[in-house]
Amino acid sequence: MIEAKNLTKIFKDKKRGEVRAVDDVSFTCKKGEVFGLLGPNGAGKTTTLRLLSTAIRPTSGTALIEGADIVKEPQKVRHVTGFLSGNTGLYGRLTAREMVEYFGKLYGMNKGQIVQRTNQIFDMLDMNEFADSRNEKLSTGMKQKVSIARSVLHDPPVMIFDEPTSGLDVMSSRTIVQFIRQCRDDNKCLIFSTHIMSEAMRLCDRIAIIHKGKIYFEGTVDEALEQTAYDNLEDAFIEIVGV
Amino acid sequence: MKFRNIRTIYGKEMKDTLRDRRTLIFMLIVPIVAIPLLIMFTSSLMVGAVTKAQEERATVVFEGFDNLPADLQDTFKAAPLLTVKTENDYADTIDLIDQLKAGGFDALVSVPDYFGSAIESESPTSIDIFYDQAELKSEFAVDKIRDILEPYEDKIVAARLQERQMSVEIISPFEVNRQNVASAQKVAGRELGGILPYLIIIMCFMGAMYPAIDLAAGEKERGTLETLLVSPASRGEFVIGKYLVVLTTGIVAALLSMVSLTFSLNYMVNNLLGDIASELLRLQFNLETVTLIILIILPLAGIFASVLLSVSIFARSFKEAQSYITALNMLVILPAFVSLLPGIEIDYKMALIPVINVSLIIKNAISGSVEWNYVGVAFISTLVLALLALLFCKKWFERESVIFRM
Asked: What is the predicted ipTM?
C-alpha cells in the first residue's frame, strides 16, 4: 500500500529560480491494484516516483509505503519496494546471475535465499539460457528480463515502475506488460508512470493525472471518461488539465 | 555503515573493474610493459646518438693551416677521426661562420699568421675554435681538436723547461684529486631519483583514473545509478566501497611502476652505460625505503581517489568526466615534475604542498637520505587532506543536485 501525503519537492534552478516539480501531491494505491501516474514529459512523474523510492528526499510532505515513512524510515521502505525504469541499465561486464546476486546481497539476503530465488525467477522469466553470459552481449529483451529479475529478487510487496516501456521495442514492452499483470495477480501494489494514454487504459485499475507537479484527477479510467464525456483518455486528459 | 555492504560493493566493483580493458591497460600494461620499453628505447637512442657522434669523422676547416708548425700539420692530417680542410676548399664561401652555422662542417679553427713565430719567440698567442654547441657532433669535434692541441702544448712546455734545465714537476706543485664518497645508491638517487617519483605519482593517478570514471560517471551513463540509490546500501557505503576500489587500482599501478622502473633503469645503466657507470649508479631498495614509499603514496592515492570520484560523479557522462579529468591531469603532472628539477630540496614549506611533498620525499628515500621530520609533516598533511577529501566526496555523493545532474 502506498499513501502519498502532500508530497512536495522544490528544486532550485539557476535560470528558473524555484521549481515546484511536485506540488502537494496526495494519492493512495492499494494492494492488488495497478495505479497509473499519467502526465506529459516534465509533469513531475519521475520526481514523484523518485521520492517514493527514496532516491531523493521531499521538501515537505511524506508518503507511507507498507506503513514505513519514506522520510523517517528510508531503509525500511527500500526493503519493501522494487524499482524499475525504462532506461534502467545493467552492468555490462557482469553476467545476469552476478548482477542479480549483487543486488541480493545489498538487500541483505543470504546465499541460500539468493540462489533459491534466482532459480525461481530465472525459470519464471525463461532466462536460464543467458543467465551466465555478460549483460553487454544480450539483446534488449533479454536485458529487460535481467532488470526485472533484479527488481523483484527480494520479493517486494510494492513495485515502482518509471516509464517502464519507454524506448523498448514491441517484444520487450510486452514482457514488461506481462510482468506487470503477473505482479497484480500476486497481489502486489503497483505504481507506474507513463505518458502513453492507451497503455494506461489497458493496464491501470486507477489513475492519477499529474500536470506541472499538481494532481488534477484521481480515480478509475472510467470515472475520468465519465467526468469529461469523452470516450478516450487522451481527450479526457486534455479536458481535465485544461490546456 | 555496514561493513558487509562495503565488502559486497568492493567485491562487485573490483570484479567489474578488472574486466574493463581500459583499466587493465593503465593499471597493468603501462607500468609493466610500456614504461620499461619506453625507457630502454629512448636510452638506447640517446646512447646510440652519442656513440655515433663520437665515432664519426668530424670535418674541420682551418683558416691559416699553413701557419701551424709542420709537425702539428702532419698530426692533424693523420688524425683518424678528423677530416682536415682549409679555407681554400671553401674559396667561394663568403662567410665561413655562416657555413658552420648551416652545418656545412663541424668546426672552424682560426690560426693567426704569426702563430709559428710567436711560439718560436715564446710570446703568448692563441688559436680560436668556432663550433655549434647545439650540435652534438660539433661539440665532439672540439674535443677531437683539443686532444691534438693539448699534448702538443705539453710537448712545447716540456721542451722549454728542458732548455732552461728545469724539471716538468716545477709547474705542477700539487695535484687536486676528487674522491667520491657517495654510495652508488645515493648517486643513483640524484641522477635517476627524479624520474622515479614523477612516474610513480603519475601512474598512481592514471591507474585510478578509469575506474573512477567508470564507477561514478559510468553508473550515470548506464542508468544503473538509480537502482543502486534505491537499494538498502547507504550512500556512505557505496562511496566507501567505490573509493576503496579506486584506491586499490591507483596503488597497484604505482607499485608496479616502481618495480618495473627500478628494473628497467638498472638494466639501462648496466647495458648501455657500461660497467663503470653501473658501479657508480645503482637503484636499490631496502625494506625501509619500500615501506616508506608505500606509506607516503597511500594518502596521496587517497586524495586522487576522492577527487577523481567527486569529479566523475559530477559529470553527466563518461565523456564529460574524461574531459574534466584530462584538465585535472595537469595539476598532478606539474607538481610531480618538481622532483625532476635539480636543486629543489625539501623544507617545511615544501613538505606541506601536496604532490610536491610526496615527490620530494620519494626522491630522498631513493637516495637513502630520509629526513624523518619532513616525512612526518608530509605524511600528516597529506593524510589530513586525504581525509578531508574523502569527507567531501561522501557529502558530494549525498547531494541530489550532483547525483541527479543529468
From this structure: 0.90
